[in-house]
Model the fold of this input.
Amino acid sequence: LLGYVYLHLGNYARALAYDQEAYTYHRQVGDHNRIAWNLLDIGFLRLKLGDFVEAEAHLNESLALAQRIGTRPAEAYALTYLGYWDLYRGDYAAAANCLQDALLIQQEVHSEHGCAAAEIGIGLAFCRLGELARARRQLQRAVERARSVAHRRRLAEALIGRGLVEIEADQPAAALRCLNEAVAVARESECQESVAAGLAALAHAERQLAVNVVPLSDKPRGDLASALKDAREAVQVAQENTLPVCETWGEMELGLTLLAQGEIEAALEHTERAVAMVSQTHEGWIGTEQIHRAHAQVLQALDRTEAAAEQIRLANAIVQDKADRIPDAERRRRYIQ
Done:
């Protein structure tokens, strides 16, 4: 129970310690059902902490045990988290396929929160693949499902995903509506990763809205000062809770907002920090190529053309590596575009 509480709060290291204690106890008493759940919890926490090798090993062990003893709910979650393992590595097509398989079992065992988790992952995978209509449908289902069972952490995650889809669709006003609610729900739930991620995405939408020269009939007020404030808070929350993925994202948003304000030297400080932390992040919320492209924009503004070109080369290499893992040629072509 304590492991779940700290997972919810975003304190993954502390949650891992409690789950490892529980795993040791359940092994001693031979409770195979609880062992399967402990293994998948440990695997997911390893994933959150960036240990992909250990995460995969624990999740596969959990899946095999759950299948052997016929524990379908644990099997559903092991598959769901293996889908997130693919998502975090940038293997988006594999993530979508694995999570769709997981969703079928989550539906079979009538786990509404499990279905929401799978739908969020599917939506994020489709978003990264550029399949925005499919992403929007999946994430809206997750929003409605999480609301129906009052699962605020899942609701916040689904709303962040919806906001990211609208950002990709160049609909910052719609993104802002999703993300303002996401941050409010995340604060209520006290899930610090959702707070930090929501604030970083909100900063992006506010910046996008502020610099959008096309009049929008339903345009809410968006300004760079709000984007700066939210990006700074995202970084602060991430630093206080040891969330390097969100810290990197927040630093990138700070840099891009300062660049939009014409404060290029200040922007450089933040995009340099983001690039320095890129090895500690994953491909789930945003693609790491975006961090290199953001830094390239700042370097180009400083007329550091060779350094900017190197960042673009790194970004393109990341995109190509992820594209190479997409088996369908047409989907691969759309992703590269």
Summary: Confidence is low (pLDDT under 50) at residues 214-221. The longest helix spans residues 192-211. The chain is about 80% helix and 0% strand.
